[in-house]
Amino acid sequence: MRVAVCLTTYRRTNLLERALEGVSRLKFCKVAAPEMEVIVVDNDPSRSASGVCKSPMLSVLVRYVAEPRRGIVRVRNRAIAEASGSEFLAFLDDDEFPCETWLDELLATQAKFAADVVAGPTRPVYEQGLPEWIKRGNFFERPRYDTGASLEFCASGNVLLRTAIFASVGKFDDNFQLTGGEDTQFFLRVGRAGYKIVWSNEAVVWETVPRDRATLNWIVSRGYQAGNTWSLAEMSIETSAKYRALRFFKGSAHVLAGLAGAASGLFLGRIVFARNLRRAFLGAGMLAGLAGKKYLAYQSAGSTSPSGVPEASGRSSV
């Protein structure tokens, strides 16, 4: 079996180095060690990640590829093209690092459940100095499921998939270049094409949460972005009036419930307030997407980062 482990990166060499060190320490106990190729796709025209990929401290060979055209979709699609000779592709972002059994667990789950796509949990690692209320609020914790649970869609930060899928489903959609959410839309297409997506709860990767994300503004903005890209992703697949009515109802319900909860949060504390305000912004983003309005989170050239995608990961609709 040939597996391509693809890391997308943009000007975060320290984090990329840690991610590659994690890949170097991978162990295989449940399945035979695959023929593994590690591919780094760098979205920085100055090729800032090239030196890290040549580090003598790494126990794996890394194939470095520069993708100078800016944008998350171009980087992901370049990784797919580079991995065309492999049976499976595993995506990992540059701000993530895997547990030693990460790929072993993904492959074991794939074999056990005859899955086409296997997703795993991404757990937060907080930088020093983050406010305690951010940690206690679990704003960066994502849903987890029993191993083998079926998913409707997943994210691309911790996922294994058959490369044969791309021949029938296509690659990531260029229309999501500036909004993010390209992975949500892609895996919705994969699921609706009849491919099997399952969860592997033991295939853990850890994601760094920097201090500049530990703010109320970032949390609610990400809620709005997640809601907006969810509506845009669904509308690119489902255009019926019934869908639009259901999404309008759900978005409105999130806004009303979120605002009501945020009001109570003024008395119950900052965590309750932030959770409910995020929910209200999630609903507002849905309604804006339903109206065709795009939140261009990555419009600024300096903020377009392949690992800055919306935190959408789950098995049911938002």
Account of the protein in words:
By secondary structure, this protein is α/β, with parallel strands linked by helices. The chain has two domains: 2-213, Alpha-Beta Complex (Spore Coat Polysaccharide Biosynthesis Protein SpsA, Chain A), CATH 3.90.550.10; 216-303, no CATH class. 39% of the residues lie in helices and 16% in strands. It has helices spanning 13-24, 72-82, 102-113, 132-136, 165-169, 182-192, 216-235, 241-268, 270-290, and strands at 2-9, 35-42, 62-66, 88-93, 96-98, 117-119, 122-126, 158-162, 197-199, 205-209. A seven-stranded mixed beta sheet has the order 3-2-1-4-8-6-9, with helices on both faces. Helix 1 links the parallel strand 1 (2-9) and strand 2. Mean pLDDT is 91; it is low at 301-317.
Summarize the structure.
The protein has 318 residues and is an alpha/beta fold. Helices cover 39% and strands 16% of the residues. It folds into 2 domains: 2-213, Spore Coat Polysaccharide Biosynthesis Protein SpsA, Chain A, CATH 3.90.550; 216-303, no CATH class.
Keywords:
318 residues, globular, 10 strands, disordered C terminus, 39% helix, three-stranded mixed beta sheet, Spore Coat Polysaccharide Biosynthesis Protein SpsA, Chain A
Round the Cα radius of gyration to an integer and report it. Answer: 19 Å
Which consecutive residue ranges, at least 5 long each, have pLDDT under 50?
A: 301-317
CATH architecture of the largest domain: Alpha-Beta Complex
Q: How many beta-strand segments? A: 10
Number of alpha- plus pi-helical segments? 9
Q: What do we call the CATH topology of the largest domain?
A: Spore Coat Polysaccharide Biosynthesis Protein SpsA, Chain A
Query: What is the CATH homologous superfamily assignment of the largest domain?
Result: Spore Coat Polysaccharide Biosynthesis Protein SpsA, Chain A
Q: Mean of the pLDDT scores?
A: 91
Number of domains: 2
What is the global morphology?
Answer: globular
Roughly how many Å apart are the termini?
36 Å
Structural class: alpha/beta
* Major sheet: arrangement of strands: 3-2-1-4-8-6-9
The first-level CATH class of the largest domain is given as Alpha Beta
State which percent range the strand residues make up: 15-25%
How does the major sheet shape up?
7 strands, mixed
Helix share, percent = 25-40%
Q: Sketch the topology as an H/E string, one letter per element.
A: EHEEHEEHEEHEHHEEHHH
